Amino acid sequence: MDEVEVSTIVYAPPEEMYEFLLDFPGYARYSEYIERVTQAGDGTSGTRYDLVFSWWKLTYTARSEVTDIERPRRIDWRIVKDIEADGYWQVESVPEKAPDGVESASRVVLRIEFDPDSVSESAVDLPRFVSLSWVIEKVKPLVRKEATRIVERVVADIEGQRRDVDLNIRTGPDSL
């Protein structure tokens, strides 16, 4: 399994961050590659989301499902179509990280684990002479970049302005 984890401190209370992260269809506005998100369910466990991605000459719809929620700490999810992948958003209170004049702070973590070898040739309609292995190698660094972009944009949106965000990025085992 490959993995990427992006974490940062956000100057907002955990409850506010958690509610913000539950708005999964809103993620499309943070991503360069997500065209739209449709939702089937109320956001709790069992809710499914179709994420329509577009990159290069490819369009792909990933179907995810919320597998567990632990209000206001964690949202677990998994991909239920075409690839073995899962992850979570985690929120924890870290009041000691709030700068002077700011009432609260939360650590927000986005973790993604996926098996690139689990993608089947039939999952994606590839252009002629393009191999699935080539696409996977091109997409792996995009996963890291997108995870980072999403976290940076979430911070700007929740705080109401852009700022330099200190991101902690961990990848492995294949170093995305």
SSE pattern, N- to C-terminal: EHEEEEEEHE
Tell me the CATH architecture. Answer: 2-Layer Sandwich
Q: Name the beta content range.
A: 35-45%
Question: What's the alpha carbon Rg, rounded to whole Å?
Answer: 17 Å
Q: Write out the strand line-up for the largest beta sheet, numbering strands in chain order.
A: 2-3-4-5-6-7-1-8
Approximate helicity band: 10-25%
Mean pLDDT figure: 86
Number of domains: 1
Low-confidence stretches: none
**Assembly state (oligomeric):** single chain
Q: Structural class from helices and strands?
A: alpha+beta
Q: Describe the largest sheet.
A: 8 strands, antiparallel
Shape: globular
Instruction: Give me the number of helical elements.
Output: 2
* CATH superfamily annotation: START domain
| Number of strand segments | 8
